[in-house]
Write the structure tokens for this entry.
Amino acid sequence: MSSLVGFLSLVFAIGINFYLFLSRYIFKFQKQKFNLFIRFSSLLTLLSFFSLMYAYVVSDFSNYNVFQNSHSNKPLIYKISGTWGNHEGSMLLWLSILSIFSFFFSFTKNIDESFQRLTLIIQSLLHILFGLFIVFTSNPFLVNSILINEGLGLNPILQDPGLAVHPPILYGGYVGYSIVFSIAIAGLFQNTDDEWLYVAKKWSLISWTFLTGGIALGSYWAYYELGWGGWWFWDPVENISLMPWIAGLALVHSLMMVRGEQAIKKWIVFLSILCFSLSVFGTFLVRSGILTSVHSFAADASRGIFILLIFFIVTGFGFLVFLLKEPKKSNALNLLFINKVSALVINNILMIIATLTILLGTIYPIIIEVLYNKRISVGGPYFNATVIPIMIPGFLLMSIAPILSWQTNKIQNSKKYVLGFIILSILVLIQSYFLDFNTWGFVGLLLGFWIILASIIAIFSSYKVKFTIKFVKIINPHIAHIGVGIAIIGITCSSVFQNELDFNLSEGDKFIVNGKTVLFEEIETTNQINFQALRGKFLFNIEKNQSKQIEAGKNYYPVSKMITSEAGILHQWNKDIYFILGDQKDNEWFVKVLINPFVSFIWLGVIIMMYSGLIAVSRR
Amino acid sequence: MSLRFQRLLLILLTLVIILSAVLLILYNTRENVSYFYTPSEINKPDIVKNETIRIGGFVENNSFNKISSSSFKFKITDEKASILVIFNGILPDLFREGQGAVIEGAFVDNDIFNATNVFAKHDENYMPASIKEDLKDTGYWNKKYK
């Protein structure tokens, strides 16, 4: 029953969008009525999504999708998240989020009516494309022909609270760029004034904030769930999410800086199209099965071709409009050697090069295989060695960019900055001399601290410190950059200064980690709702009274016959102590302990960046 | 500095950035890319000792041996040839005999492959697309694999 409701409302919503698209050139709608139709179709799409979710929650195994991906003994939260833990459901989620963005955009006030309508028509077109994709290749509402009492279960690795919310948030970013795309195209067509720039800024900030949150959640999940001790592996799917993120960052900066310059306006349109194209391209790469990764649910050639088609339509249409239409002429670019505009230009060039580098590394294996029939893999070392050096000048630039002038080459209070930089370099050099000297570690720490210091100097020397909302908004760019600096420190420390210790232990053994004695208490097995848990119990720092218990082990999921690792992590503000339980032989267990310094700084930095993203939404 | 000179400087700077990025990419695609083989392709003489490569195939049945709780010996096969692998560390959760795996490492001598990384992907039906074709040819292909 719920499958029928879901399918009908999905089809009906697509029908409404068709009708809207056709009627625009036949009937003349009143604005109110038009928006009502858009909202109605959005609600229908959501109804469709929630009926699938309902089928998951009540374990309605008459639905083929539920049967394939769910099991009646799963905890409720994973029944809900199972809705998007598979290809079909995740595409329906994609469409639902597209609808939500259209829904809210239809309420935007104080913008030109015809501009708003044109934007929504483009959204309608996207809705039709992705809607047809779902109906024809990925229908989640197929019904089993025979009666079935039990499902096959959700991939255990996806049964995690962090990962349950990761897809909707990430999609909020990916799909959010659809509205930015539509706004940019509509802006080119209408071409009346620069109003669309403000609208685009708001929505691209929202999308970027969602994307940041989604990537960070995925990365945090990989950190504690995969049990490899790292949080970024340059996996193709991670790269795919990073590309629109960097392009989106360039877009946000361009939108902040634009003062009606013709060249920058054009560039903004280009970036808007690029961001959404990269999102669709990423979907194609993941869903087509060309790239094998944690995220490729199933490879199906017809899906790949369909998405590739959508990609070509979206990108082709976007760039065609971009080439044919010009933004209205206005101010010329005020380029000086080092002023705000030139900093922006260089920063954008660097970001685009970084994006292209990642793109190249991600699809290089495919190109080589097609051309030479040789198989290669491009892993972390390539990306570390190309992307990081490209980003470094950008990071240097960003420390001073917010205080550069619009009109002249002069930098206010330049002496303070030079002095600050010299003192900081000496301090970091001394510090790295006492720890093991490492070039990357030195560069990373210096950059991170310098960005923070320069931002703080800028806040205190350029503005009067007041505790008002207005002040919070004014210093927001600096706060965002402080977040980046903190994240850089975290990234540098946790990757360069990571320490790895290996032990072979029996129950009751004591061993030393980071100068503290750890007791390997026992191995315990317990039965949980839908898995069996094997846990090694460790007592950290037994000499003191405030000893901490750490549990590391594995879970066995009988339904899918799978094992997952569960790392035991002791979080401290300046380091994570990360326990992984390995294999066993003759009562000896292999235990790997990783000391990851300042990992928490990464998450803190990301939270600050997201906060700034949200604050900037409200700033005009 | 005249306006014209400043713009020239900017353009030069941009060119330098782009050029260095291109050089960086070219250098790294030669240095930091590892080739991927199946076990039967290994015996070609073009594989240099101590060069990092990846090998994809199946963990051969009855070949897995625990030397200690953290060092393992097993064979990777594609039914035409098999390679003896030693690995120190923690094997991935889905590592099992008869399952697909990709190993990264280098040959320490002509017969023994020293693995630094072992990948067994998260979906138990997972199969690296790149070795799918070979497996279909040898009949090791299992319909369950997607």
Q: What stands out?
A: The longest helix of chain B spans residues 3-31. The helical segments of chain B are 3-31, 129-138. Strands of chain B lie at 33-37, 53-59, 65-66, 71-77, 82-88, 100-107, 112-119.
